[in-house]
């Protein structure tokens, strides 16, 4: 599957649709070249590995007591370091990120995840190495 976004539920965005079309075309091009016997060299690629889902701060009754800080909003895949603003309480208090490593949040403040108690997903940037690849079909 391919998920391209972010975009609000029920909204069709031209830029996101264009990105989706491009990635599907790349996938189909790969399948065609692979089926034709093209050899793909070994490569290394940076990816984001999910670490954990992070909920909004809540009170003892389970009610949200802080929102995503404005400096974090719309910053999916950008580095979040220890001390950076994370949440903003309804009283205006900043709750900073407290972590021992830089993380890369994504799905920040997505409406579809409120009911799942998810403010964002914390990811880490890692490198994956793929061996060369070639179809055994001639």
From TrEMBL:
- AstE/AspA barrel-sandwich hybrid domain: from which residue to which, for each copy? 44-125
A Pfam family for this UniProt protein?
AstE_AspA_hybrid
Instruction: Identify the domain of life.
Output: Eukaryota
The GO terms this record gives for MF are: hydrolase activity, acting on carbon-nitrogen (but not peptide) bonds, in linear amides
InterPro entries per record: AspA/AstE_fam (IPR050178), Aste_AspA_hybrid_dom (IPR007036)
- Cellular-component GO terms for this entry: cytosol
Put simply, this protein is called: ACY2 Aspartoacylase
Please tell me the species this chain comes from: Cnemophilus loriae
């Amino acid at each position: 599957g391919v998920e391209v976004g972010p975009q609000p539920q029920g909204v069709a965005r031209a830029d996101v649709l264009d990105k989706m079309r491009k990635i599907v075309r790349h996938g189909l091009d790969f399948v065609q070249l692979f089926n034709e016997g093209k050899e793909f060299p070994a490569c290394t690629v940076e990816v984001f590995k999910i670490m954990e889902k992070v909920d909004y701060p809540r009170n003892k009754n389970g009610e949200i007591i802080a929102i995503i800080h404005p400096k974090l909003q719309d910053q999916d895949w950008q580095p979040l370091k220890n001390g950076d603003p994370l949440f903003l309480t309804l009283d205006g208090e900043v709750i900073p990120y407290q972590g021992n490593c830089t993380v890369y949040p994504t799905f920040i403040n997505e409406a579809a995840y409120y009911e799942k108690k998810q403010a964002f997903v914390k990811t880490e940037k890692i490198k994956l190495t793929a061996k060369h690849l070639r179809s055994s079909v001639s």
